[in-house]
Amino acid sequence: MSRHIPPFDNQNRPIVDADDSTTPLCFFNHVRLRRGERHVHQVAGYESMIVPASGSCDVSVSGQAFTAIGKRTHLWGGDPEGVYVPAGAQAEVVCVSEQLDLMIGGGRCDTVLAPFAVRQDDIDKLQYGSDDTKTHRKIKHLLGQKNADRRGRLLVSELFTVGAGGWSGFPPHKHDTERRDADGATHETEYQEVYQFRFNPDHGFGAQFVYEHEDDHGPVYHVRSGSVIAIDKGYHPSVAAPGYEMYYFTVIVGAHSKSLVQHFDPHHAYQLETIPGIKNMIAKFK
């Protein structure tokens, strides 16, 4: 079942490590460096995406150098950049700004591909929802369908609520089962996921819901800046408190498929017809 990891100083060690007990497909680390400091990242059997939340870094992977990755002085201004690290490859990160706030998301992968950089112009962006429906969101895909041929089953994105408060992951959806009909059409794919939350202002908060069946009651987690949620199954909407913008870094890893197909809670699926642009968002994951 899902797990909430409250904010803590992980001292640059993985928060969700390889072969995690809840989400063994996923890896997540939060790294903080000062100018000139280095961090070496390498996880056997896992591909990764290195993404500065703020600050800039040089990254070398398998003899290739990627310079000045990250253009943001703070998380809430500008688009992200990142470097893809193939499964099992060693990446060295060197901080070239005064400080570096770095997120590393990874996923189990049985193929070794080539490293590459994702620059601001490469980000696949969309915005959907509305203030009226309390579902206004921006999504910035670093690893998605735009570069599906260059990755394994790892999806990495940044998600922002727009405005002060509102819902995300709504209508409630899940993706914990491989479901196809007799004609072979896919209705759901099995994915695990890990989030790290941030809030603006930083002292904001929200709630993460998780429930396995549409008629069940599941846990509700109080999330703050730095909270990490690991989800292996179940519906999982979240909400930001009024007056606060919510962000989360998403690491979503497929068990079998490179394409994420979501199943919506039947009690609430009709609201797909009420939220502007949400079907375009769904299509971006397929």
Question: Would you give an account of this structure?
Answer:
By secondary structure, the chain is mainly beta. It has one domain (12-285): Jelly Rolls (Sandwich). Helix content is 3%, strand content 44%. It has 1 helix and 24 strands. The protein has one helix at 278-285, and strands spanning 3-5, 26-34, 38-41, 46-54, 57-61, 64-69, 82-85, 91-95, 99-108, 116-118, 124-128, 137-143, 154-161, 166-168, 173-174, 179-180, 186-188, 191-200, 205-209, 220-224, 228-231, 238-240, 245-254, 263-264. Strand 11 (124-128) and strand 12 (137-143) form a beta hairpin. The model has no long low-confidence stretch (mean pLDDT 95).
Major sheet summary line: 7 strands, antiparallel
Q: SSE string, helix = H, strand = E?
A: EEEEEEEEEEEEEEEEEEEEEEEEH
Number of domains: 1
Estimate the global geometry from the Cα principal axes. globular
Can you describe this structure in just a few lines?
With 286 residues, this protein is an all-beta fold.
Question: Can you lay out the helices and strands and say which pair or pack?
Answer:
Blueprint: E1 3-5, E2 26-34, E3 38-41, E4 46-54, E5 57-61, E6 64-69, E7 82-85, E8 91-95, E9 99-108, E10 116-118, E11 124-128, E12 137-143, E13 154-161, E14 166-168, E15 173-174, E16 179-180, E17 186-188, E18 191-200, E19 205-209, E20 220-224, E21 228-231, E22 238-240, E23 245-254, E24 263-264, H1 278-285
Antiparallel strand pairs: 1-21, 2-9, 3-8, 4-7, 4-9, 5-6, 5-8, 7-10, 11-12, 12-13, 13-23, 14-22, 15-24, 16-17, 18-21, 18-23, 19-20, 19-22
